Amino acid sequence: MNQDHIRNFCIIAHIDHGKSTLADRLLEVTGTVEKRLMKEQLLDRMDLERERGITIKLQPVRMDYQKYQLNLIDTPGHVDFSYEVSRSLEACEGAILIVDATQGMQAQTLANVYLAIAADLTIIPVLNKIDLPAADVERVGAEIVSLLGCKFEDILQISAKTGKGVEAVLERVISDVPAPSGDTSAPTRALIFDSYYDEYRGVILYVRTVDGRIGKGDQIQMMANSSQGLALEVGALKPDMSALSGIETGEIGYIVTNLKSTREARVGDTVTLAKNPAVDALPGYMDVHPFVYAGFFPESNEHYQDLKDAIEKLSLSDSALQYDLENSPVLGFGIRVGFLGLLHMDIVRERLEREYNLDLVVTNPSTDYQVTLVTGEEIDIKSAADLPDVARIQEIREPWIKGEIVAPNGYVGSLIQLINSKRGLHKNLSYIDERALISFEAPLANLLTDFYDQLKSITSGYGSFNYELADYRAEDLVKLDFYVAGEKMDSLSIMVHRTESERLGREIVEKLKEVIPRHQFAVSLQAAIGARFIAREDISAYRKDVTTGLYGGDVSRKKKVLAKQAKGKKRLKKFGKVEIPAEAFTVMLKRD
Q1: Are the C-beta atoms of 112 and 147 separated by less than 8 Å?
Q2: 592: pLDDT confidence band, cut at 50, 70 and 90?
Q3: Are 360 and 334 in contact (CB under 8 A)?
Q4: Could you tell me which residues come within 8 angstroms of residue 501 by beta carbon, excluding any fewer than 6 positions away?
Q5: Distance, CA of 416 to chain centre
Q6: Which domains does the chain have, with CATH numbers?
Q7: Mean pLDDT, the chain, as a whole number?
Q8: What is the spatial distance between Cα 319 and Cα 262, in angstroms, rounded to a whole number?
Q9: CB-CB contact of 291 with 444 (8 Å)
């Protein structure tokens, strides 16, 4: 197709502001999908996405409208999947920014706008849900004007649910988004913005062709790692795969390859033709590094191999997933998995349980730490259990994040108190109409468990939160160990700041007391830093009244039976095994 008639754009917004609903209406208006085949969240392929009402994976689709080829990429809205958004932006020239007319600007809206501006995209502001009684068009419109510096008349007012104003969005995309600028005669260069592994077809790449053309049967080469493959099929997603003879300059499409692993064609790599390779690769993406880690263990050790195979398969379609093998004296063999955030962890856990029929025990999530030894050697630890002996450590550095909270003005005081309680540093406070934007820095480990829940609770659900990794800072960190019946549980160990260790130790042993069942003997629960115990709780033993059958007679009969019971309990305490339920390993995630 003529390049002047191609438009590549994506939809960006905060979670639940109507991205997928607008994508559905665009597919309807352009006639890409017949009305009888239409369903809600059509581009969300996973059952999990439909149930939760969120987009997890970006999804491209090609639409034809008034002699124009429109390539749309629907993106996720949650902060954990902002990496997917940044990849989509690189493949486009324009972005539709959706803002909910009832909620206004949110933290992820701002983050996505900054990403779009950094990628030099044309931004089309759209006000959605104007048909709802709670919609405040004037106020929210003023927020968009102050953010983007546009005119109020430039903001499109639509209702994605009813379809009102959707055609105007398409007209604006055609008129405002620039056509792709690529050289049809230059050596082929195509950017891989997503890839996944299909069991039956091999590795499938989603690409944006910048220069040249990729045709069916072409021998392709990846410029980063020089791996070669064959383009078995090329085409466009409409929204199902539709085979074509080739993908031309400026177009977005897919390539079915004969590669066996997504590691051979990494996201952000440049695809070129083996017979006439390009010299300069396209600027790719920065490598994504997980910063939340949790141990995944099967409930029974006989399913360890099934878990290992399942995570290997899942990592083929999720480039952000990284894992290492782990062994615990209590839980047996397992896998330590790295995630982009708690929602990402929750999604992966649920997919493993559903798609691979596994029963899992998941340990408390933690972050990674950089440790400098007295010898000058630097090591990276992903679990408190891996921390070397204290005598060998010079300093420990933990990751800090730069965060932004957007909330109504009335909650500012409470939010600053919340940030301070997490060892955070309040940096800046600005106002956008009736909303406050609080910028802060805080240690990531303190925000992992219940920060988001507390934020929503304090702001009555109106607050939103976005963050990015800042740097690693040296702090007075200690390893907090937990002992159950005198036995140290490495799987429960956590890294904490010394000033918070005593409070956390007391809290956790109290929570463990609630989840660990009573036994026939007394069980002690202790928290310790090194050799110093700082908290203790005792689970009392079941008491069976062994004297019920004794009637009358001398008191020595009673004493004799009780002494026998005490002796048995003492022996049981020595040899008895404490049963630790799965909930004990996620005790940090439990709210009071």
Answers
A1: no
A2: very low
A3: no
A4: 478, 480, 529, 534
A5: 25
A6: 3-176 (3.40.50.300), 189-273 (2.40.30.10), 292-365 (3.30.70.870), 370-475 (3.30.70.240), 479-589 (3.30.70.2570)
A7: 85
A8: 8
A9: yes
Question: 254-309 pLDDT, tens per residue?
Answer: 999 988 887 788 888 889 998 888 888 888 666 677 878 888 999 888 899 999 99
Q: Decide: 482 and 508 in contact? Cβ < 8 Å.
A: yes
* Residue type at 178 in one-letter notation: P
pLDDT tens sequence across 499-554: 999 999 999 999 999 888 888 778 899 999 988 999 999 988 877 776 767 777 77
Residues 6+ apart with CB under 8 A from 396: 369, 370, 371, 372, 387, 474, 475, 477, 495
Place of tokens 């003529």: 2
**Contact of 63 with 27, CB cutoff 8 Å:** yes
Three-state secondary-structure class, residue 405: strand
Task: For residues 410 and 432, give the distance between their C-alpha atoms in angstroms, rounded to a whole number.
Answer: 13
Q: Are 371 and 379 in contact (CB under 8 A)?
A: yes
- Nearest C-alpha neighbor of 459 from the set 504, 392, 414: 414
Token output for 442 = 């805080």
Most distant CA pair in the chain, distance: 109
CA dihedral 287, 316, 224, 238 (to 10 degrees): -100
Residue 29: HSE in the Cβ half-sphere, 13 Å Cα cutoff: 21
pLDDT, tens digit (0-9, with 9 covering 90-100), for 42-82: 555 566 666 666 766 778 889 998 889 999 987 776 766 77
Distance CA 1, CA 466 (A): 40
How, if at all, do strands 94-100 and 122-128 pair? parallel
Q: Which amino acid is at 369?
A: Y
Q: Compute the chain's Rg from CA coordinates.
A: 29
Q: Which residues of 377-393 are buried (b: 16+ CB within 10 A; e: fewer)?
A: eeeebbbbbbbeeeeeb
Q: How confident is the model at residue 123 (pLDDT cuts 50, 70, 90)?
A: very high
Indicate the angle between helix axes 412-421 and 451-458, nearest 10 degrees. Answer: 160
pLDDT of residue 574: 64
Please work out, in degrees rounded to the nearest 5, the angle formed at the alpha carbon of residue 224 by the alpha carbons of 219 and 226: 40
- Distance of alpha carbon 105 from alpha carbon 285, whole angstroms: 27
> DSSP secondary-structure letter at 569?
H
SS (H, E, C) 36-79: HHCCCCCCCCCHHHHHHCCCCCCEEEEEEECCEEEEEEECCCCH
Whole-angstrom distance, CA of residue 184 vs CA of residue 78? 37
Kindly report the pTM of this predicted structure.
Answer: 0.77
Report the share of the chain in percent with pLDDT over 90.
Answer: 31
Contacts of 533 (CB under 8 A, 6+ apart): 483, 526, 527
